[in-house]
Description:
This protein is an alpha/beta fold. It is built from 14 helices and 8 strands. Strand 1 (about 20-25), helix 2 (about 30-35) and strand 2 (about 45-50) form a beta-alpha-beta unit. The longest helix has 17 residues, at about 230-250. About 45% of the residues are buried.
Amino acid sequence: MAVQLQRTNKTVQLLAQRQPIYYTSVEDRSYEGGRAAAQTWADYINVDLEHHAFDLTLLHEFMRGLVDGGPTPSGHRTPAVIVTLPTNGSDEAAFRANEWMVRQVLAVGVHGILLCHAESPAAVKAFVESTRYPFQKIGRDVLAEGRRGSGGQAQAAAIWGLPVQEYLRVADPWPLNPDGELLLGLKIENLRALANAEAVAAVPGISFAEWGPGDMGMSLGLSDAHDPPYPPEMVAARNRVLAACKANGLAFLEQVTPENVAAQIDEGVMVGAGKQAQAAAEIGRGHTNRPKPW
């Protein structure tokens, strides 16, 4: 049975249906790399701009390749693309100084952003505001006016396959805006962020979060603790972020394997990551009775 297409962003569609999502990363971000990645098994493609070159010309070519290589096996125009930024959520002033990065990546046509080192609730609010157009009113009792300006919407709308006015309407964070198609996430991945886990997770406009075990381990004095099994202090950090996600209705991102994916989903993991994510996704999608094609 074909998936009923209601959304541009496949991850939003699935999470709205309470279906876990799974992602992959790609090395080839050229136009041809995008054409090949359009047929990925994954629900979204993670593009790491935190540790790799902030090359948006290349990313735009990759997005064009995704369009030309589509539609996806599930019938979507492209897989969702979510990027990590080289700026952090350490404090509001630092983020405001770098919010130009948000405007740039959204104009390329990506579907979401993952903010690293989300330490400050004020910085996270600034992050959400930077993704929004000023005319969006939902959530303005907590959030200030959106700071995304006019100028990049035509290019992004072309990637999404939408009229410009429709893109302007739906290019807003979900689930804050029920019609929104942007997925915003946080990495609560050091002790400063952990101390504010509940407050940053409560900021309207955030959809998902993770505990970033590699960086969290370093913050705890462990140079290489990215993969399980984890020591007790790592488990405690993980559980606090998971609890903050549950309390605020956020999807929790964590590694999954074929052996543990069902248990992870049952515990609350809604975004599956890891080296074995493809094999785990096959099992996890069956576990949650996701309609095919995937």
